[in-house]
Amino acid sequence: MASTEPAAQHYHVSASAAQAYAERLLIAHAVPPANAALVARCLVAADLRGVDTHGITRLPSYLARIRQGVLDPTAQPTLHELTPVVAQVDAHNAFGFVAAHLGMAHACHVAQTYGIAMVSVKHSNHFGMAAWLAQQALDSDAGAMMSLIFTNSSPALPVWGGKSSLMGVSPIACGAPAGEGTLPFILDMAPSVAARGKVHKAQRRGEKIPLDWALDAAGRPTDDPTAALEGGTMLPMGGPKGSALSIMMDVFSGVLSGSAFAGHVTGPYDASRPADVGHFLVAIKPDLFMGLEEFKQRMDYLYQRVVGSERMEGVERIYFPGEIEQITEGRRRVEGIPFVRAELEALDLEAKRVGVEGLGVMD
């Protein structure tokens, strides 16, 4: 069972130190420097936003897959334009971050001219926190773009009425710009009650999980993350609704792209064979139907209406989607990213394995 001892002490690492460490480690595993910088930046972005499940603690699993030869650190994805507004990226088993970044950059560039563009990505790998792609679209050189981001993933969720894992807890994400004084809309969510990465995080930290997150191998609710991960299964949010969303991710990301689907995607913690993940990316120019300033004013009004809603008893503040993460990022850029000792030890072990400098702790 998970530990019932008090919460472990946290040690803080600056974002710049985490970025440099991740780059060193990736380059030592033959990842080209530009790709290493991109992967590291996306992982650190997750840590800064408080999405610790998709930050640099993912590196040991990625590197294990490189060492086993099931993820190609040197691969460079290629893009093929199919129509003026549709393209496909073949990742060639490269990091999902690299393939998805190429796809979103192309989609934003095309959407500047045609208003909308979509890119399908095949033969890819895990791309971490989906919100970084929404942020990439918002920060595009082509101008701030709206975005839709789908991916499929390894079996972790039963279809509604089933008892064994078949669908992935694949995130759906989207973003939209707003005015100068308002935060942009960024949604990044899994179709499960909780992301599976949160269970891995609880296991690393010796913590329990809520009983409504997962079932053990016998189909019983469990608060033990190890029991949930070893033969257990995650639970869909909203019952059949979460199940249907996970199937939708497989349709758009797996079936459509030509990648693995229907339970055949390999997970990032499984170093037995290539993952063959698929992604589906859409960029939309926000001023298609009205001027950009009017669009931003409407987004600002929506934000004010949402956060200014009458609050239910016990609620101190209402947040816009993505707002809590952006507040967390501001705090962690000052205080550093928190890790427990077991996580730091695992990361330092990876550094020692290839003879590079480990992480620098702030406190």
Automatic annotation (TrEMBL):
Organism domain of life: Eukaryota
The keyword Zinc is assigned to this record: no
User: Which Pfam families does this entry report, sorted A to Z?
Assistant: Ldh_2
Which molecular function terms from Gene Ontology are attached? oxidoreductase activity
What InterPro entries does its record include?
Answer: Mal/L-sulf/L-lact_DH-like_ah (IPR043144), Mal/L-sulf/L-lact_DH-like_NADP (IPR043143), Mal/L-sulfo/L-lacto_DH-like_sf (IPR036111), Malate/L-lactate_DH-like (IPR003767)
Tell me the keywords, alphabetical order: Oxidoreductase
Q: Which family does it belong to?
A: Belongs to the LDH2/MDH2 oxidoreductase family.
Q: What is this protein called?
A: Malate/L-lactate dehydrogenase
